Every structure is written in C-alpha cells, then in structure tokens.
Amino acid sequence: RNYTTYFDTVRRLLAPEGLFLLHSIGLASTSQGTDPWIDRYIFPNGKLPSAREIADAVEGRFIIEDWHNFGPDYDRTLMAWWDRFNQAWPRLQSRYNKRFYLMWKYYLHCCAGFFRSRQGQLWQLVLTHAGRAQTYRSIR
C-alpha cells in the first residue's frame, strides 16, 4: 500500500542520470495474505510483492532497465546460513534458549523451501528516469 509514496520519493531523490537498484524478495504470483508465522515473528505487517505489483508501481515513474531473479541462489544461501548457525550453536547456546534455536531453524528451512519451490523470488531491478541519456548495460 506504500509503493506510490515509496517510488515517488525515489523518483524525486534520484539524480537525472542516476541508477536505482531495488533489491526485493517477491512472490511468483500476487497474494493478499502473508504467512502468519512470518508476520508474527519476523516481519510484522510485511507483505511480499509480486512482479505485477512492482511493475504497476514503477510504470510511469521509471524505466525498468534490468530485472534479475536470484531466487534459486537464495535457497543455497539460506541453507548455508543454517549450516553456519547450527555449527556455531554450541558457542551460542549459553546466550540463547532452545526456543530461539528452533525458531531460527524453522525460519531458515521454511524460507529455503519457499525459494526452492520457486514461489519465492529474489529480485534486483535497475530503474532509471525515462529521460536518462546514458544507456544501461547489464553485465552478468
């Protein structure tokens, strides 16, 4: 619900020849709901956008120069975080309780599954003003 204000602010603050990188987790299809557990414990009042919601919000404000999906890589990232967290747990457990451990385990594994299922997307968009003189070239 705040995309209009957000992107209007970005448009106002971005230099005429500037580049704006939007890094966002998103959904493969539009949803009005949010996972209740994530909403309660991780991102209260959060909402993941779909590609349509982002495209609608930037239309008329920016040119989408590039849109890259890193979702498959994020599954591996989350599992690497889990491995490191689990390995470090013996050193951490004196400061944190078992509930904390189980919540992080649940969070990291659920999120990895979310990206593995391809319902979760990890996007980087490069946006520019329509009047930008320079051509943007993506290098991958």
Give an overview in words.
It is a single chain. With 140 residues, the chain is α+β, with helices and mostly antiparallel strands. The chain folds into two domains: 62 residues, no CATH class; 55 residues. The chain has five helices and three strands. A three-stranded antiparallel β-sheet has the order 1-3-2. Helix 4 packs antiparallel against helix 5. The chain starts with a helix and ends in a 12-residue tail after the last strand.
* Overall pLDDT confidence: 95
Distance between the termini: 33 Å
Order of H and E elements: HEHHEHHE
Catalogue the unreliable spans: none
Q: What structural category do the secondary elements indicate?
A: alpha+beta
Largest sheet: 3 strands, antiparallel
**Relative helix content:** 40-55%
What is the strand content? Answer: 15-25%
* Number of E-type strands: 3
**Order of the strands making up the biggest sheet:** 1-3-2
Q: What is the helix tally?
A: 5
How does the overall form come out from the CA principal axes?
Answer: elongated
Tally the structural domains.
2
How large is the radius of gyration? 18 Å
